[in-house]
Protein: NAD(P)-dependent alcohol dehydrogenase
Amino acid sequence: MPDLPETMRASVLRAVKDIAVEERPTPVPEPDEVLVRVASVGVCGSDVHYYEHGAIGPFVVRQPIILGHELSGRIAAVGSDVDPARIGQRVAVEPQRPCRVCEYCRSGAYNLCPRMEFYATPPVDGAFCEYVVIQDDFAFEIPESISDDAAALMEPLSVGIAAVQKAGVGIGDTVLIAGGGPIGVITAQVARAFGATDVVVSDIDPGRRQLAAGHGFRVVDPAVTSTERMGAHAFIDASGATPAIITGVRSVRPGGVVVLVGSADEIPLSVADIAMKEIVVTGIFRYTNTWPIARDLLTSGKVELDSLVTHVYGLDQVEAALTGEGATGSLKRIVRPRVARIEEHDVRAGRG
Structure:
């Protein structure tokens, strides 16, 4: 194995709103794993939630944990069963380790594996650090045409792919998406790439409507214009807002599909609206087999992610990346662990 440092720097969540950079042992890959030197890590809403609240549903932070699960990097070492020719490859990482033997894994639905180990989900460490390990087949080689940041964002892109697949979007479809944030705009791009000819993004925030319009999508201010008579083939919620979901269900034509991506508490749904129109209401939990699709969408230019990155931080600035303090108008915040600190003007400009 190549010469590697015995320790690495890692940003560790020690308690709610308590983050510090620590020295941790550099992980050693198991026979079927690769060691990845981390290049870029996207900040996800789940990271922010763990920082602010210490838990998401049944997943509770009970011991110090490294957050971050949207990542790219370069293979620095390989386990004994992995081709050493992989050393040096740039990769995007699918940040999960299913058991591969349960009924869900064997059927292909490994995202539902009850023994799943997912980055930055307690007690599994994530990627706000210099090195991580992952099983060889979950480190996907990427071409030079894909930037480190875009490669990291193949994780939220995979969420969009999973949502569009679940919605059954096809050629000529009309798709309504609630939420014009990064997930909403990414999902809208995927829907268009899958053949939808009318993709509508609904958001109460004018800045996010402008972002979606800049990507060529029709936009709606739900406070001004109702979508209830739209007759969409599919509605995908990326907002987590109860009013948006209720309206979205009413926006779908008979036989349409509603896919819930955003997190929401229990909400009232009209059985009459769903049953009498035979609407399918479903959700997604992560993804399966999406990285090759994500790579193809990026290399073909059908999806563009770099413009979503508005703020970039070093490893010593993870807390600022999580709080977004001073990051006015931020969309996607990125941490680059190989850099300790990025100058403030570069943070604001999204440059590293």
Notes: The mean pLDDT is 94.
